[in-house]
Design goal:
This protein is mostly helical and 92 residues long. Helix content is 65%, strand content 0%. It contains 3 helices and no strands.
């Protein structure tokens, strides 16, 4: 039976790969939601496409590893959060 992470049992950053992936996905969802308030849908979609490509390229050496998806999602989230800081720096 595959491992299943239950939300109420996980304390981020997590204790195993499944929990860590869940935590980083939760964080990405939160940063995506925050960007939805700052960007038009068209610009947000462009941003997501670019960050996914950049992060995939940055972590290409780990492509065959089990940690690769977590690294790419974490990269996307960190880039989102960096952009969100830029918006705050502009008077928010």
């Amino acid at each position: 039976m595959p491992a299943k992470a239950e939300q109420q049992d996980i304390q981020c950053p997590g204790q195993n790969t499944v929990e860590m992936r869940w935590c980083v996905s939760k964080s990405l969802k939160k940063s995506n939601n925050a960007l939805e308030k700052q960007l038009t849908p068209k610009i947000l979609e462009s941003w997501k496409q670019v960050t996914q490509k950049v992060c995939a390229a940055a972590y290409r050496p780990y492509l065959q590893g089990s940690i690769y998806p977590q690294m790419v999602v974490g990269c996307d989230d960190r880039l989102n959060r960096t952009l969100l800081k830029e918006f705050k720096g502009l008077g928010e």
